[in-house]
Amino acid sequence: MQLKGRKIILGITGSIAAYKAAYLTRLLVKEGAEVKVIMTPLGKEFITPVTMATLSRNTVLCDFFNYDDGSWNSHVDLGIWADLFLVAPASANTMARMATGVCDNLLLTTYLSCRCPVMIAPAMDLDMFRHPATINNMEVLLERGNIIIEPSSGELASGLSGKGRMEEPEKIITRLVSFFEAAAAGRGPAGDDGRYLSMRGKKFLVTAGPTHEAIDPVRYIGNHSSGKMGYAIAAELANRGAEVILVSGPVAKELDHTRVKVVKVNTAGEMHRECLKWFPGCNACIMTAAVADYTPVVSSGKKLKRGSGSITLEMKPTADILGEMGRNKKKGQVLVGFALETDNEKENAIKKLHNKNLDFIVLNSLNEEGAGFHADTNKVSIINPDGSAVDFAMKSKPEVAADIVNHLSGLLK
Length: 413
Ligand code: CTP
Prior knowledge:
The protein is of the alpha/beta class. It contains 14 helices and 21 strands. Helix 1 packs parallel to helix 3 (49-56), helix 1 (18-30) packs across helix 9 (169-184) and helix 4 packs across helix 6 (106-113). The protein is elongated. Cytidine-5'-triphosphate binds next to helix 12 and strand 16.
């Protein structure tokens, strides 16, 4: 019951993704939220008010008036009642109207009246999503403090494939939960100026994944890093309005976010080059990558042949990327490292923090079940330069990312 007692207006607009609003409503109610649904006239063509009224356990509001008894559906009262206004799915048309202040239906008048945070989950065809008009409207909405839940990429109702699928209901719920958690703790997405995109105007370098050091054209030395933690941090920062450069080693992951530039690399040498290139222009770097400490002295151009005897591979150290950035960081730049230790965990992590001149280090332990490389969960401690530490419970990697970004945001103020 993570959303217990939260009052949420769910706005449904004319998009085929309206079918997902049914499941979203079910999840909201299951999490303890009180849900009132407003539908635009076109929204009703995609999913019926009866379905939404049943799932939300409330009357669905579509018109300014109740035509049976003449009573007024007050958008002002609705706007004051709500803790959050979630528009999901949000069509290109509704976003354009929200951006310009047109208010010819109940959803739009409620939007103009409400005093609560507004989250918008767009859903549309890929060409509509990338049209300059839509991009411009989203910029305006972001600028005014609305939170946009990026659509994902994949198969679209049009039969085309690309970006424009409304985010999955489970992921929207996760966003809501972390939003309310952060707001309750007086930190996180809510900025001092009352807006919700506290990282807007800031730029971050995030690294993720392993590096692969070639032995020959078909073999390499690598490690088990999946990149999940770094990708979750990049998404969390971008969701809070930041611009992110994600330098990623070879992983089976993609991140298609308007404000994330993904730079793919293979080797520690390539990651080193990219980090030195981007770090000077960034407010902070979060180095989650599991960078190889050694690379073969010689990488054979041809596949090595099997022989009968044993072989020895000569290795040379790679650059300590974080250490180098720590030596060169400018006043105000924040540097965050990760440490994965098997023994003397905290002492080793603190040593790394000081050696590399970090602002804090995130320690994750291999000794914990459910934490580490391929898991979807992680259990971390954040250690500060004075040795103080905050130990977090086991959480999903996106939730851990939110904790780390919350800690980081305190240092950027
Ligand atoms: N790191 C780096 N460059 C390297 C190795 C590590 O920037 N060549 C960064 C990692 O991304 C991580 C931090 O340094 O944020 C700590 O990495 P870790 O492998 O735990 O530490 P090392 O310095 O490599 O020390 P050791 O392997 O001996 O524990």
